[in-house]
Design goal:
Elements lengths: L1 E6 L5 E7 L10 H13 L62 H17 L3 E4 L9 H10 L6 E5 L4 H7 L5 E5 L5 H5 L3 E5 H21 L1
Parallel strand pairs: 1-3, 3-6, 4-5, 4-6
Antiparallel strand pairs: 1-2
């Protein structure tokens, strides 16, 4: 069992939360995490790179000058790939869909849980009793994360209804905001810390435990 400290907004530890590693994959699976990260990162490519072949370049196909007698090297049309402004010999024509790869649903969900396990093992999860704010104010959120020593990039994952927390955090440098149900391996690995409140984390763990038990029953 992992014992996760729970902090209040002043940075004082007020409670602990016990988390079962088996619901998050049992052990850190580095190969799976790398695969999930690379696939997600690759799927963000626009795939819009295009170059023109010699047939796509606007211009005449006429031979520039006669083959012999000028003293110049042999030359054909101005659109040939060997000349400046000409076409490209092997143009890029792939569309975005041809670049996409995917993980199975089971592997993707396991990678999401396993990435959280890696953060917990490294002590990079900062959990608060409550992250609600009376009004959206960037300074208030910045003060809260400063109390627990966050000095690098962090990911804030809260319930979608906690609008004030999301608005308060979005303008803080190096902070990314997402809803707890959108928590994924790519975002977890792309940030040093995870900031979450106890209720949101518990909902994610309950969903993870349900998925793990369902997989055991099917297996």
């Amino acid at each position: 069992m992992i014992s996760l400290p729970i902090y209040d907004k002043s940075g004082k530890q007020v409670d602990t939360m016990s988390i079962d590693e088996t619901s998050l994959g049992g052990s850190i699976r580095y190969a799976l995490l790398k695969q999930a990260y690379v696939i997600t990162h690759g799927n963000q490519r626009q795939g819009s790179a295009r170059t023109k072949s010699r047939g796509m370049v606007h211009g005449s196909t006429r031979k520039l000058y006669k083959q012999k007698g000028t003293g110049n090297a042999r030359a054909g049309a101005a659109r040939t790939p060997t000349r400046k402004g000409g076409g490209v010999a092997f143009p890029k024509t792939r569309d975005r869909e041809s670049l996409r790869t995917s993980l199975s649903k089971t592997s993707r969900r396991l990678a999401n849980r396993n990435a959280l396990l890696a953060k917990l093992v490294d002590g990079e999860v900062k959990c608060f009793t409550d992250l609600s704010f009376a009004a959206p104010r960037t300074a208030d959120f910045a003060a809260v994360i400063k109390t627990v020593g966050i000095d690098r990039t962090c990911l804030l994952a809260v319930n979608g209804k906690n609008r004030n927390a999301m608005l308060s955090a979005r303008n803080v440098e190096s902070v990314t905001v997402c809803r707890i149900e959108q928590l994924n391996a790519f975002e977890l690995l792309n940030h040093r810390y995870l900031v979450v409140d106890k209720a949101a984390l518990q909902s994610f763990l309950d969903e993870s435990c349900f998925a793990a038990n369902k997989k055991t029953e099917v297996g």
